Amino acid sequence: MSAAWHVIGPLVDLPEGEPIGHRADRADGTRAEVVLVRRGDAVHAFHDRCPHRAAPLSELGFVDAEAGTLVCGWHYWAFALDSGDHTAVPGVRLCQYPVRVDADGLVSVDLSVRPAP
Ligand code: FES
Predict the structure, then answer these.
(1) Separation of alpha carbons 45 and 34, rounded Å
(2) pLDDT computed for residue 117 by the predictor
(3) Which CATH number goes with the domain that contains 23?
(4) For ligand 1, what atom is nearest to the CA of residue 61?
(5) Using 50, 70 and 90 to split pLDDT, how confident is the model at 88?
């Protein structure tokens, strides 16, 4: 499957260490729900639904900067920002979108990735 890069916006507009929700329509009409977390010059992007009970992480989640995790505020499942892996349950992870930060500082996300239904 070829990449489907979608421009989010300038890196400098993303707040540090705070989950930010972004919605985008794919070319096939499906809608991508993305949660973005900036850490310095890096940006992590995941499907914006907790795999436990589908809580929107951009609204109910928070970043534990010391642990490097995105934590769901409903039942406190924690996911590593680098990989999306649950920190305690093997095989449970957030669907992760590839992220690109271009030389001009624009952040893009590859929406060809599909979360499991
Ligand atoms: S819905 Fe996220 S931990 Fe339960």
Answers:
(1) 6
(2) 74
(3) 2.102.10.10
(4) 2
(5) very high
